[in-house]
Amino acid sequence: MSSTWGSPEFGRRIARRQAAERRFRLLGLGAVVLSLSFLALLLVIMAKNGIGGIDWRFLTSSDSTDPATAGVFAAVKGSLLTMLVTLALAFPLGVCSAIYLEEFAPRSRWVDWIEVSINNLAAVPSIIFGLLGLALFINTLGLPRSSPLVGGLTLALMTMPVIVISGRNAIQAVPPSIRDAALAIGASPTQTVFHHVLPLALPGILTGTIIGMARALGETAPLLMIGMRAFVASPPSGLTDPASVLPMQIFLWSDEIDRGFVRDTSAAIIVLLLFLLAMNGLAIYLRNKFETRW
Amino acid sequence: MIGTLSLLAVVVLGLVGWFTGRGRARLLYGGRGTMHSLPAYHGWHLALWIAVPALVGWAIWSMIAPHLVQVAVLADPLATQLPPSGFDRLAILAEARNLAENPDASAFNPLSAQLAQPMAGAVREFGLIGLGLVLVIAFAGGAYGYTRIRAGFPARTRVERAIMAGLLIASLLAVLTTAGIMASLLFESARFFGMVSPIAFLTGLHWAPGNAAGAGIDADFGAVPLFWGTIYIGVVIAMIVAIPLGLMSAIYLTQYAGQRSRRWLKPCLEILAGVPTVVYGYFAALQVGPLIRDLAEMLGKANPSTESALAAGLVMGVMIIPFVSSMADDSIAAVPQAMRDGSLAMGATHSETIRKVLLPAALPGIVAGVMLAISRAIGETMIVVMAAGAAARLSADPFASMTTVTFQIVQLLTGDQEFDSPKTLSAFALGLVLFLVTMVLNIVALRVVRRFREAYE
């Protein structure tokens, strides 16, 4: 191009390039705004449909064929029991696994296998875990169908890799000087890890655990596989009773033809989102309160 | 009932052992340097000797006890009235067991009500034997552990070795899960492929498992329409939405947005990934589906349905945005600052630098992110179950209802289940295909990301 400095041709090119710059920037802003407005639309519509349906009766009664008397209590209780099983299994196993891989594992082919399968499991579709739960826990071990026990076991297998990965990151973030100091005054490697590294990594591990649990709480597909879609009109009284969970209740109600269930479904969605919001809020709070920058 | 009691007894005995061991070791303390390990380690050592063998014994016993109960009940004179074999016999026994556990349950078969009595007796008897066994093992283990408490005994090393074994077992669980998934999918799929030829399954164009039976069975298990529906919804439509929006969001957030707005916008965008898929599914079915139907009507389609590939794909695309965005974010951030500075110093504008320098340099990472996003999209279940429809058809019409692999898995496995029908087993074959495809996508993507990171470090 033969335009020289200061020529009108040069000025036009600069203007064109600056216009392109502005367009590009606007495009980026547009993408963010469009994505967020979809989220806003979703939340507003659910709130509009459902907010009128949330009252004391809705929160304390259980599923029913009549939308006016149906409530979420049984589903919430089922969700809590399921999450209890998931947490009791996935948290200790996930933390132990993270400690081993990060602190003690020798570099070997076996350990590579463990790492590959953990990273892969974290991205396997959740419905596959449902198939595993169906084949293993129900068909092979004969555990009761649609119970919080089987649901919790299945979700624990799904949540464990998430906890392992976040646990490893948290352990990795603890500076080596802490370990060196403990080892230097005569602590054994096990004592170093359990007395010094683990307490420092715990906030990070807990944050990851809560996020993994929030994902498990919103999960529906694997529970469909193990039969947690039955009509459950009374709250489960134990881990082996037939139960429903909150996302499943939403799914079941969304299939109902009666228009009254639109309100119930949206109200249940609001309840579920509030639970998730509380859990994520707790995770963010923990991170901000205990996070140490080394 | 007695089983839980034995478990509780083991825990209590272990606790007692801990205090006993620690107390005994404290008595041995004779000044600095006389003991190998701290007293608490002797406590742990003793507690482990009490609890671990007893728990193993308990686990083995609770596996064999039901069989012993069954044998005992069958020896009862009443059992001669049982039908000789088959389903009825098992049903009556199962019912009797249920009655033995809670007497309030209603009896369907009068014989099972009679058998409940000996059944309850046998359960109690073998439960007590089990409790005795567990207690004996716990005491034997405890006695052995107690004799080992000496000043020079390396209790800490032993306990740490046990801890290490526990940690190793926990981390092997991930491999076991993978192996379990593979085994269960392969086993059930093998049964399916014993009835239907794999070639017909992978290349057939007609999917109608409902009426499949007899000789023409191969013709009704052609899964290509499902693969096509999955690809069309999850890869074509969802990615048309997610890639531009995700990529542009990442570029805006990393390159243009100020510190403050970035701190707010990024978590907001991440909420999109945290909304449960059932909520997206409901939104797609309730709002997006009807909207798309009206649009199709306006475009002159005859009888469009509310369930369409477009509705499911659009919503899925929105769900995927944060994945694409955060992966693109990471890979753009990994491009060395010097490359950016160089381009800017040559007089390129910001957008020119991004398009001509940053994006090409970050491309491998972005492609890996898109692969992970695709693996997420094709495994997504609830959105397609609620919004995509059940019709297995090969069509490029986005307004047509279409079905996917995940939808069919759900469809085939909910409802009446007979575990030997090819209809039910085909769900596992579909699951196997899905698992293998997503696994390849994940592993390739993770490898690309790692190599890409190494290239710039």
Summarize the structure.
The complex is a heterodimer of chains A (294) and B (457). By secondary structure, chain A is an all-alpha fold. Chain A has helices at residues 8-50, 56-60, 73-104, 109-121, 126-140, 148-173, 176-184, 189-217, 221-225, 246-254, 260-290.
What would you say this structure looks like, in words?
The complex is a heterodimer of chains A (294) and B (457). In chain A, 74% of the residues lie in helices and 0% in strands. Chain A contains 11 helices and no strands. Chain A has helices spanning 8-50, 56-60, 73-104, 109-121, 126-140, 148-173, 176-184, 189-217, 221-225, 246-254, 260-290. In chain A, helix 1 (8-50) packs across helix 11 and helix 3 (73-104) packs across helix 10. Chain A is flat, with a radius of gyration of 25 Å. Chain A starts with 7 loop residues before the first helix and ends with a helix. The longest helix of chain B is centred in the middle third of the chain and has 41 residues, at 155-195. In chain B, 76% of the residues lie in helices and 0% in strands. The two termini of chain B are 60 Å apart. Chain B is built from 15 helices and no strands. With 457 residues, chain B is mostly helical. In chain B, helix 10 (309-334) packs across helix 12. Chains A and B meet through helix 1, helix 3, helix 4, helix 5 and helix 6 of A and helix 5, helix 7, helix 8, helix 9 and helix 12 of B.
